[in-house]
Amino acid sequence: MDTNSKTQEDIIDKIGGVIKNKQSIQDKNERKKWNRYVGDVCCRIFREFILKYLPQNYTVSYPNAYIIGFPTEFDLLILNKDTKPDKYTNAFRPEKVRCVFEIKARGINVGREGLEKEITKIKNKFEEVRKKYSHISFLYLTYREVNKTKRAGSIKYLDETRKILGPDNVFCLKDSRSGETNPGEWDRLINRLTKILQ
Questions:
Q1: Alpha-carbon torsion 132, 50, 55, 191, what sign?
Q2: 157 and 115 in contact (C-beta within 8 Å)?
């Protein structure tokens, strides 16, 4: 197993442990209350591992960061090293931001009718920033997402997300239905991020 495959497995194990704790809660409504917590933990685990692969002149914001001039909250930002947020905020100057991450613990969780709308909302959020600051790139990273279906006609959520956001911008470590790892996804992400930061 190469280093990046091992890293992908380590991330899956860490996030999987948090999700397993949430799933042990019997009451479905009570379990839903933990979704934001799981999402926050995912961001922090991804942040920890992304930092290990960044060139030394870059860093990663903590979750729930902003770009000055935009009211939108972003999950993670790749920033020039030694960049500090504005006083009393987690908002950074746009010229210091190189890449924005949308992070999901389990992808987009809506039915067929709302799927395109939800993915397009993410795309529009990205494009709003790119109109003004073309040097900022965007990546979508999810711990798990449905792509292997059991029945014909079922939604392959990962394929739909890639169609709208672009296949080079969407990364998924594990399939939700089968539980199988998507081999090479961490490699793809690190390679893409390296190109963005050159």
A1: negative
A2: yes
8-state DSSP, 62: P
Residue among 22, 39, 15, 46 nearest 171 (CA): 46
Could you give the CA distance from residue 23 to residue 33 in angstroms, rounded to a whole number? 12
Contact 21, 116 (CB under 8 A): no
Q: What is the pLDDT of residues 28-57, one digit of tens each?
A: 777 777 778 888 989 999 999 999 999 999
Pair of tokens at residue 118: 């939800």
Judged against a pLDDT cut of 80, whether residue 196 lies above it is answered with yes
pLDDT over 60 (residue 188)? yes
Q: Measured between alpha carbons, how far is 98 from 139 in angstroms, rounded to an integer?
A: 11
Extract the tokens encoding 111. Answer: 């039915």
Eight-class DSSP state of 75: S
Phi (first) and psi of residue 183, to 5 degrees: -60, 140
Mean local confidence (pLDDT), 14-19: 82
pTM of the predicted structure, to 2 decimals: 0.91
- Among candidates 135, 130, 126, 113, which has minimal Cα distance to 170? 126
Give Cα separations from 72 to 3, 45, 126 (angstroms). 35, 22, 10
Average pLDDT score over residue span 112-117: 87
Q: How far is CA 54 from the centre of its chain?
A: 16
